[in-house]
Amino acid sequence: MNILKLLSFFIIIFCADMSIFAQSDSLVLKDLVWDNDYPAGTSELFIPSASVLLAGMIYKPNGNEKHPTLILLHGFPGNEKNLDLAQVVRAHGWNVIYFNYRGAWGSQGKFSFKNCVEDAVNVVTYCNKYQDSLKIDTSNIVLFGHSMGGWVCLKSLEQLPQIKKGFALSTWNIYGDLKTIPDEKKLIEAANNPDIFSNYFVLNSNNLEIFLPAFIELSYYKLATDAKSLSKKEIIMLDEHTGNIEVADSFKEMHLPYFDYQIWKTDHGFTNKRVSLMNKLISFLDQ
């Protein structure tokens, strides 16, 4: 009886520790042990997408074996790149790939929302093609998207049966924003009004070129209707706003293998929650 009580005690402590880790606001980091034969490092990537090249980079951990790989998907226009997460995830033994979409931050081609989704799919194709030279375990690739990148994460997962996990941070509900505009005339007025839509010179498409095609094909942007096509995925949606409750509810109804939706008290960049975010991401990658 005493042995059973002791075992029960340790099981409870272990489970509590796992829960705390997933929500912890503290993190212990150590310098990487230098691997003289196959050291960690960073390399530039030039990734083909629709006959042009995307500028990117890969954060590589120690070792010559193939590593699980996290792909970062930035937002609109992508000021927050979440490269602090890249460093922590690389220290955890993962590759991390960051890239800029077509027409963004110097990448070739034309920027559009739908092109961003196609770019994400093409990056995975690139990972498959160069898995040996880049040391990528293609059976364990995970997407992480922030803001517009969260939308890209969920939309591209529909086209990527090999990828089982996606982490969508503060997903931009493009449909929710555009559906409030009554007609194309009002959309054009809004696109030309910097108080409504900011103009970003780091994107090579103007607001009208970006938002009018989305407005015309608005149903494509409604994430709540995509739940069925994501029913076999493991997904985290983490927000600082309530704009995605309908989307989250639609996912819950599909009973995904794993789905976690939370709203944290923070800003769009999760400024005061970076460590908790790191812990939540690492826990998700490990499960």
- Beta-strand fraction estimate: 15-25%
Residue-averaged pLDDT, rounded? 93
What gyration radius follows from the Cα positions, in whole Å? 20 Å
For the terminal residues, how far apart are their CA atoms? Answer: 33 Å
Helix/sheet category: alpha/beta
Secondary structure topology:
Blueprint: H1 2-23, E1 41-49, E2 52-60, E3 67-73, H2 83-91, E4 95-99, H3 113-129, H4 131-134, E5 136-146, H5 148-157, E6 165-169, H6 174-178, H7 184-191, H8 207-216, E7 234-239, H9 245-253, E8 258-263, H10 274-286
Parallel strand pairs: 3-4, 3-5, 5-6, 6-7, 7-8
Antiparallel strand pairs: 1-2, 2-4
Helix pairs in contact: 3-5, 7-8
Labels describing this entry:
eight-stranded mixed beta sheet, single chain, 287 residues, alpha/beta, globular
Summarize the structure.
By secondary structure, the chain is an alpha/beta fold. 37% of the residues lie in helices and 20% in strands.
Structure description:
- With 287 residues, this protein is of the alpha/beta class.
- The protein has helices spanning 2-23, 83-91, 113-129, 131-134, 148-157, 174-178, 184-191, 207-216, 245-253, 274-286, and strands spanning 41-49, 52-60, 67-73, 95-99, 136-146, 165-169, 234-239, 258-263.
- Strands 1-2-4-3-5-6-7-8 form an eight-stranded mixed β-sheet, sandwiched between helices.
- Strand 7, helix 9 and strand 8 form a beta-alpha-beta unit.
- Helix 3 (113-129) packs across helix 5.
- The longest helix has 22 residues, at 2-23.
- The radius of gyration is 20 Å and the shape is globular.
